[in-house]
Design a protein that fits this description.
By secondary structure, the chain is mainly α. The protein has 6 helices and 2 strands, in the order H-H-H-E-E-H-H-H. The longest helix is centred in the C-terminal third of the chain and has 23 residues.
Length: about 140
């Protein structure tokens, strides 16, 4: 089970192009504007200005998703979180919003409407929570 990361981006919400470029950076680990621009243009039906990629990379840096280092004359962008860490943060935030409903009847009605696979998944989650609590008590 991946722990909740200590670091969180300043702004979690991303537009479609921001999300696409962030996924490219995750794939490449570190990239220049040219690297990202070239990757996007591998789709022959796609047009995107080089300056637009630069703008989005800066925006992702301002939002706290990327860091930027200058090496020689080139700027390299790296993710500040792994994709898995980002997924953990997003899941945690979604769960917190769901639980903020606070009405046990609403939550129970939702759980009751789930199909068998989702119910089994919730049961597996409950078992993992119980095991984690027992492990904490034993230490």
């Amino acid at each position: 089970m991946a722990p909740l990361p200590d670091y969180r981006p300043k702004q979690m919400s991303l537009g479609p192009l921001e999300a696409e470029i962030l996924h490219i950076i995750w794939d490449l680990d570190s990239a220049t504007v040219k690297d990202v621009h070239d990757r996007i243009l591998t789709d022959p039906n796609r047009e995107l200005a080089y300056t637009s990629v630069t703008t989005v990379l800066r925006r992702l840096t301002d939002k706290g998703w990327l860091s930027c280092d200058k090496k020689g004359r080139a700027f390299y962008w790296q993710p500040r979180l792994t994709k898995q860490q980002a997924d953990v943060i997003k899941a945690h935030e979604q769960l917190q919003r769901f639980l903020a409903v606070g009405n046990p009847d609403v939550i129970a009605a939702f759980a009751d409407s789930l199909d068998e696979a989702a119910s089994e998944q919730i049961e597996a989650i409950a078992q993992r929570i119980q095991a984690a609590r027992q492990a904490r008590e034993e230490t």
